[in-house]
Write a structure and sequence with these properties.
By secondary structure, this protein is α+β, with helices and mostly antiparallel strands. It has 6 helices and 6 strands. The protein has one domain: 3-Layer(aba) Sandwich (L-fuculose-1-phosphate Aldolase).
Length: 197
């Protein structure tokens, strides 16, 4: 059975290959007990998501110890806030997905148009706050409140205005599955403009 760092690196490569994130950023984490495992800063821009398990950082969820690590992902504050607020969350994925980005930039919610995404409902847009800020982490947690059952069963997501998407889920595999379903759902919405009635 693969370790959590092995799972994270495998999923990072898969996401990059499938355009579910880009070189500009994103991050992936998982919880095991009170420990968070998270991709390091510059995973996209410097490593092109070709990470090895030893690249993955780890530390306690209930302290700010990781915040002092210079390799800690700047959006890691949001990951810690999610794990501290939702005990059933065991994976967090923040991504800049190719078909989701237009909705993030336009600050538009994503309606479920596929049967495969009905379980996620309409993906809401949270209030804007600057990237890497405590305000953004707080807005993400507030946006996920009320979606606890989705987190328990697969994943819940919110749109970060002008930035991307973040998902909190049951485990890494169900969370990345949710990300791809939502990205495909966005492609279907965009493609309908060309298909017409």
């Amino acid at each position: 059975m693969s370790t959590i760092p092995e799972q994270i690196t495998s999923i990072g490569r898969l996401m990059f290959a499938r355009r579910l994130t880009d070189m500009a950023g994103g991050n992936i984490s998982a919880r095991e007990g009170n420990t968070i495992y998270i991709t390091p800063r510059y995973s996209g821009s410097k490593k092109h998501w070709q990470l090895d398990p030893e690249d993955i950082l780890s530390g306690p969820i209930d302290s700010d110890e990781l915040l002092d690590n210079p390799r800690f992902s700047r959006e890691g504050k949001a990951h810690l806030a999610i794990y501290r607020s939702f005990p059933d969350c065991h994976a967090v994925i923040h991504a800049h997905s190719f078909h989701i980005q237009p909705f993030a930039i336009a600050q538009k919610p994503i309606p479920a148009v596929m049967e495969a995404t009905e379980k996620f409902g309409t993906i809401p847009v949270i209030p804007y706050a600057p990237a890497h800020s405590a305000d953004l982490a707080n807005n993400i947690v507030a946006g996920l409140c009320g979606q606890e059952e989705r987190i328990r069963t697969q994943a819940a997501a919110v749109i970060m205005p002008r930035h991307g998407i973040i998902l909190a889920g049951r485990d890494l595999y169900t969370t990345v599955d949710a990300l791809e379903r939502i990205d495909t759902n966005c492609w279907c919405i965009l493609a309908q403009r060309w298909i017409g009635d």
